[in-house]
Amino acid sequence: MASARVAKIAKYKTTIKDPGTPGTLTMTLEKILFVPRNPKSAVKLDVEFRYIKGQKHTKEGSNKPPWLNLTNNQNGSFIFEFENYSDLQDCRDFVGKVLAKSGEVSEKPTVAYPDEQLNAAEMELRIKLLQEDSELQKLHKQFVLSGVLTEAEFWATRKKLLDREASKKIKQRLGFKSAMVSDIKPSTDGRTNKVTFNLTPEIILQIFAEKPAVHRAFLSYVPNKMSERNFWTKYFRAEYLHSTKNSIAAAAEAAEDEELAVFLKQDDILASEARRKIRWVDPTLDMEADEGDDYTHLPDHGIFRDGNKEMTELQNELYKRTLSQDINRHAAVVLEGRAVDAEFEDTKAVAEALAQSKRESSNKGESDGNTSRERLDRLSRMTEIEDLQGSNNLPLAPLCIKDPRDYFDSQQANALRTSGDALSRTEQIKCSLSIPEAYGSLRESISSIKTMGWKEPIVKPEVAHQVFDALTNSISNTKHNIGKNPQESVLDRLPRKTKEELLHIWTSILELLKHFWASYPITTSYLYAKVNRLKDAMSNIYPQLEEIKGSVPSEFRHQVSLLVRPMHQALDAAIQHYEASMQKRSTQSGEKPNGYV
Amino acid sequence: MASAPSKLYADDVNLVVVLLDTNPFFWSSSSLSFSQSLSHVLAFFNAILTLNQLNQVVVIATGYNSCDYIFDSASDLNRSYENGRMPVMSSSLLQKLEEFLIKDEQLSKEEPDGRIKSSLFSGSLSMALCHIQRVFRSGALHPHPRILCLQGSPDGPEQYVAIMNAIFSAQRSEVPIDSCYIGAQNSAFLQQASYITGGVHHKPQNLDGLFQYLMTIFATDLHSRSFIHLPKPVGVDFRASCFCHKNTIDMGYICCVCLSIFCKQHKKCSTCGGCAGQKKRGQMCDCRLEILHLSP
Asked: Would an 8 Å CB–CB cutoff place A405 in contact with chain B?
């Protein structure tokens, strides 16, 4: 952007008719400020660019004075009258640029890294993680909100956390209720003799699922032949007739009203589906499965009292429906599972969604042609519950973390050792005996000890005492320096506040160093800017460390300085590297006159 | 490294395999004479045997040209060397030691050039491990073995590979190697052996009190090490020796395939005979061996 602010002399008008208050209009990247020339005037304007939606202006060639009209979100407008059109032009360009920039910013509020696109789910996950982990939140606040790191960089190293959060969401589908919701009881109004049924989309879904003939009737009759209200009235009339078990009355009413008849008849769709399913029974399971096995539509499951197999009153039999039929059908539907997932407001939407899913499943069934394979597929889909599976991480070798004290204890007196070594290496002991002499002297020693027996005493008491003392002292010294309790660390003995501060500083140092070292080698200007930011943040940590060291009571000061030393070393190494690379750059870019990095 | 005390030993029975250094050149120039050290050491063996009825001691002599078993407390052959002056076991040990020295002298080939050369530590360590394996396979009930090295001779860099192999197999079998170094300089091999296998290493300052050192530190059985504090070493010398010249080095080159250590950059590794990405004969391989900084 060529300039970050524009200041022009203008008049501010609240409406078109307003003569305008003369003053100065200053526009920066963030806001618009209008200060009137007359300090006593009450008109002052201080608006942030976020609220500005658009701009309009008068055309140059027209006779109108140069006006700029900025509209804000609440449909208010600020009108500025400039002295000449070139001022107007400048302001217009500036506003245009700012609006364009803020337009892109408002679409993707967290983008600084070119290719990141966040959707709402990702944002939710991040916010949730931040809320749960206060340490993470502190780090996030410290670095991202202060501009040292961008969102993308911060979260780039925490993908595992985000994945774990994402997988916690429930992926199972809720099934139908076991209770027969379709068998609803109306509320009766004793006074007016009316009954009222309450239908929710859930209930409607179940009714359509259980009674496909009703579903088909709904799709064909509503809204062409009858209104939805009529449809349901007829449906409930039919239900009532069923419940009275008065098949003669039912037959009579069915004869009059053909739509009612649809509700009263046996469900032919069900019958044909049952027949189809029987055909698909695996012959290895049941060779004799045939139509005779479809008895759910028969009253009493085709079992008659006293062995009577005659079917009388065929006509009226059609209108009978038993409770066991209803329960069985409901159970079958619940076990099949929910075919549609979403929530619906409208009966029509429900009906259509269900029809759609049925069409899809029948299409799939036809195209497959292989029913057993479909059954196996369904079985595997039903048995594998996604959110109970373990997370499929790559097979990693398990970490074997040894006690770090072992290593650090053994590194204690390194300087001492190396100097001792250097000395002793120069004094290599020479032996000037020949082979027979050497062996001879050994054998002599053996014979002498054989004849004389062991030395009396084997060890002089004062020597033994000395040795014992020295050993005990050295053991207790190491214990004292490291700590009696092997599990206890130096940190636990510090006051709690200091410990927390130290730990927080250490995690922030780690975070900064992680990003710092990952940015080398610097290949783009983005990395260059990032490294500069990180280096500034790192330099700010030094005074924090000094402060902690000063605030600690004196008995802990030594230990705290021991703890702080590796932090200093890490930061020093990083800053050293930075300065070395800057120097290398400047010597290199000395050859390039325009200083392009 | 997993230390021996971390494994649970149900009782404090010891099976100690002692590697006794019998390098004549070292002993003739040591401040502690051989007979003096023998009395310390023999008393120490007796003390171990009295600590528990089931304790066993096996002694292997690390000679200049050969190694051999000198003593086994569990064997019945100890009765034949009666001597009124000292316990029966000690006299049998001394007898065997003498015989070993005679044999060892006969194996000498070249005249020494004045420098003290190393004893065959790798040989005796391997023999100790073989004996321990035999113990492992002998039956169900046996005390858990450990190895105690009484060394004074300097390290022989030519034995580096063999010693490291033995150390790793001891680590694998969970046999701790304790080491007591009575020489003048420091022994990097012994320090590494104790560090890797979880044993204890000590270099006594006052050799007149060698017995006291042995009793305080090295008599501790593995079970007791979980609650008895033993002195920790001040530092471990991790220097290795190069595979080509057997010199001790602390900065070298490593083959990225087989991890053999060389002091100079080679185009081809002599151990594994290759470099990643075999080219045709005559072509120069352009993979470089990487530098390893070995000092701690």
From this structure: no
Two tokens at A322? 């038993």
Tell how far CA A458 is from the center of its chain. 74
Give residue A236's pLDDT band: very low, low, confident or very high (50, 70, 90).
confident
Strand partners, B150: B20, B180
B115 lies within 8 A of chain A by CB: yes
Q: Which residues of A touch B114 (CB under 8 A)?
A: 430-432
Those residues of chain B that have pLDDT short of 50 are 1-7, 276-296
Q: DSSP secondary structure string, A265-329?
A: S--HHHHHHHHHHHHTS-TTT-TT--GGG--TTSGGGG--GGG------HHHHTT---HHHHHHH
A136, A536, B45 from A146: Cα distances, Å = 15, 12, 71
C-alpha A565/C-alpha A560 separation (Å) is 9
Give the list of residues 6+ apart from residue A279 with CB closer than 8 angstroms, or none: none
Q: Are A430 and B113 in contact (CB under 8 A)?
A: no
Helix (H), strand (E) at residue B145: strand B145-151
* CB atoms closer than 10 angstroms to residue B110: 6
Please name the amino acid found at residue A104: E
Cβ contact A505:A544 at 8 Å: yes
Per-residue confidence (pLDDT) for residue B125, from 0 to 100: 95
Tokens linked to A266: 């046996």
Q: Which two tokens stand for residue B236?
A: 């471990």
Q: Which two tokens stand for residue A390?
A: 């373990």
CB-based contact (8 Å) between A477 and chain B? no
**Pairing of the two strands A5-13 and A21-28:** antiparallel
CB pair distance less than 8 Å for B98 and A446: yes
Q: Is the CB of B207 inside 8 Å of chain A's CB atoms?
A: no
Rg (CA), chain A: 44
B34/A421 CB distance under 8 A: no
CB count within 10 Å of CB A456 equals: 7
Of B25, B185, B205, which has the smallest distance from its Cβ to A470's Cβ? B205
Give A231's pLDDT tier (boundaries 50, 70, 90): confident
Beta-carbon contacts of residue B275 (< 8 Å; ≥ 6 apart): B255, B257, B267, B268, B269, B285, B287
Q: Taking CB atoms and an 8 Å cut-off, how many pairs form between chains A and B?
A: 164
Residue A511 CB-density burial (10 A; 0-12 exposed, 13-18 middle, 19+ buried): buried
Q: Which two tokens stand for residue A375?
A: 């059954």
Q: Which of A459, A466, A485 best probes binding to B when mutated, by most B CB atoms within 10 angstroms?
A: A459
Please answer whether residues B194 and A406 qualify as being in contact, where contact means their C-beta atoms are separated by less than 8 angstroms.
no
Q: Is A54 helix (H, G, I), strand (E, B) or coil?
A: strand
The backbone torsions φ and ψ at residue A82, rounded to the nearest 5 degrees and listed phi first, read: -100, 170
Which letter, b or e, does each residue of B93-108 get, where b requires 16 or more Cβ atoms within 10 Å of its Cβ? Answer: bbbbbbebbeebbeeb
Question: Shortest CA distance to B206 belongs to which of A334, A466, A429?
Answer: A466
Mind listing the pLDDT tens digit for each residue in A489-513? 667 777 788 888 888 888 889 888 8
Question: Which residues of chain B does A428 touch, with a Cβ-Cβ cutoff of 8 Å?
Answer: 115-116, 185
CA of A490, closest CA in chain B: separation in Å?
20
d(CA A507, CA A500): 11
pLDDT in tens, A80-111: 788 777 777 777 777 777 766 655 443 333 43
Using alpha carbons only, give the angle A4, A27, A90 rounded to the nearest 5 degrees: 80
